[in-house]
Amino acid sequence: MTLTRAKRARCRARRPRICGVPLPCGGAHPRPLRFRTWLFTIPVISLIFVAGCNGSRHDVTDAGLDVKPIGAPIEIKTPLGLPPVPIPPGAPETAETVALGRKLFYERKLSMDNTLACASCHNPLLGFTDGQRHSIGVGGKVGIRNAPTLVNAAYVPAQFWDGRAHSLEEQAGGPMANPIEMNQAHEVTVSKLAADPVYRAQFAKAFGAGLVTIGKVTTALAGFERTLISGNSPFDQYEFGGNKSALSPAAVRGLAIFRDPKRGNCAACHTIDKSYAVSENSRKTGTVPGSPPEDPQSSFRVGRRASAPFALFTDGKFHNIGVGVNDEGELTDLGRYSETKLEADKGAFKTPTLRNVAKTAPYMHDGSLKTLKDVVDFYAGGGNSNPYLDKEIKTIKLSGADRADLVEFLKSLTGEMPPNVGPPENTQMGRLK
Ligand code: HEC
Ligand code: HEC
Q: What are the residues facing 331 on neighbouring strands?
């Protein structure tokens, strides 16, 4: 089958990859992993098994292109402390896609042996992480990276510790097919779901008549993930809600250290923002007709103005802070460099949000720090020395009391989650604490 030049260019730019290895552009794009592609993929996957791949990196696919929900667009409510949620053009959130995405997120059929759901490694009870140092996939295969929280992932321009996926849609296809995660070909996932009349009806309600496709699966998953929004923490009530008793005196002292460039300097990267760029599109969706009425009991609000103050606690950028350096001073994971091949990106990882961080231990891309106290001690020591260490990371003079105050402040970032993000009724999630 021949491709037009434009299609081929788009395919090249966005084609699926297995552990960073791009797959060839097939005529059926954007249905990426059809049979012919798999003929190529199978040897690639075997190679990855032999070569060890890169631990628990999800692979990136472009699944999700050209899939259109049919329902009325809805706005995602945001709580105190957060800007409007950016929605990609052409993929509006609808009540039906979000409900379907929620069901899929807790669905064990997405894995080869029906034991793992996305929620097994992104467990709502653990701030959407798994509490493990390194994630464990189907058959007990252990990866090399720590499962990041999915809370407020909607705001982050690049997904994964190394930022190799550019949208939640692009990201979502990866873990299903990743041999060390769910280890199931997209075709198999689709046929398992399509065999279930309840799913068939739910897909039709969300996307109209037609076959279940992997693009619809990833669009629904991403739609649900965008609703995993957390704010209105004690910090937000103190900082943005005018409630000066919302934080303990220790947490207030911790916040001052966090912000002070001459002390903690934490906000240099874990930003308490003024400058988050809200896209024109998301601004428009704030006034979409048909948004659900607001629940007066909820602190979640529709259409908060972009100019209202907020804090994401991440700059969305990549830094080498000296995690993952062995005794010889060598980096054990090149991080962002694997994507950009820029020398300066060696050992750089995405700044994670700190919202709900008290629930998401252990910490860092390699899960090497067990507690928040360990993290603060690590920063006080100026990170592990290596040639690519960020210039903002240096030894900090912090007394024991200062360190305890910083930890108290970090704990004040545990916020509210919206209702309806836990498992839908009658869900058996497999390995879930
Ligand atoms: C076996 C455990 C495991 C399963 C199952 C799993 N994930 Fe992940 N997830 C991880 C790990 C580990 C990472 C970090 C990998 C990296 O950065 O290289 C991650 C990263 C992510 C990210 C990027 C977050 C960020 O801040 O960069 C998203 C989004 C995500 N997963 C969604 C999903 C979805 C959706 C599913 C189900 C289709 C899923 N995951 C299934 C372990 C898992
Ligand atoms: C130069 C930018 C930068 C500065 C300054 C900085 N951080 Fe970080 N922070 C990061 C990056 C990048 C990571 C992830 C690093 C990795 O895993 O290799 C991180 C990780 C963390 C984590 C782990 C979160 C998780 O989910 O695993 C915590 C907690 C944290 N930082 C708190 C702080 C505190 C407290 C300070 C101030 C003392 C601070 N950070 C200063 C960039 C920064």
A: 325
Same fold, 5-225 and 233-274+309-415: yes
**Is the Cβ–Cβ distance between 171 and 60 less than 8 Å?**
yes
> Which residue of 121, 123, 151, 349 sits with most ligand 1 atoms within 8 Å of its CB, as the best mutation to test the pocket?
121
With 0-12 CB in 10 A as exposed, 13-18 as middle and 19+ as buried, what is 64?
Answer: buried
pTM: 0.83
User: Which amino acids bring their CB within 6 angstroms of ligand 2?
Assistant: 264-266, 268-270, 319, 321, 323-324, 349, 351-352, 354, 357, 360, 363-365, 375-376, 379, 390, 392-393, 406
Give the DSSP H or E segment for 350: strand 349-350
Residues with CB under 6 A from ligand 1: 56-58, 110, 116, 118, 120-122, 135, 137, 143, 145, 147-148, 150, 153, 156, 159-161, 168, 171-172, 175-176, 181-182, 221, 225
Is the domain spanning 233-274+309-415 CATH 1.10.760.10? The answer is yes
- Angle between helical axes of 214-225 and 168-177 (0-180°, round to 10): 120
Nearest CA to ligand 2 atom 1: 392
Q: Which CATH architecture has domain 5-225?
A: Orthogonal Bundle (1.10)
| Gap between the Cα atoms of 311 and 258, Å rounded | 13
Q: Could you list the pLDDT tens digit for every one of the 433 residues in the chain?
A: 333 444 444 433 343 333 232 333 322 222 222 333 333 343 333 333 333 233 334 444 444 456 889 999 998 989 999 999 988 877 889 999 999 999 999 999 999 999 999 999 999 999 999 999 999 898 888 999 999 999 999 998 899 999 999 889 989 988 888 888 999 999 999 999 999 999 999 999 999 999 999 999 999 999 999 999 999 999 999 999 999 999 999 999 999 999 999 999 999 999 997 654 443 333 333 322 223 334 445 455 544 445 678 999 999 999 999 999 888 888 999 999 999 999 999 999 999 999 999 999 999 999 999 999 999 999 999 989 899 999 999 999 999 999 999 999 999 999 999 988 999 887 765 554 4
Task: Take residue 306 and report the two structure tokens written for it.
Answer: 């972009």
Residue ranges per structural domain of the chain: 5-225, 233-274+309-415
Q: Is 292 exposed, middle or buried (CB count within 10 Å of its CB: 0-12, 13-18, 19+)?
A: exposed
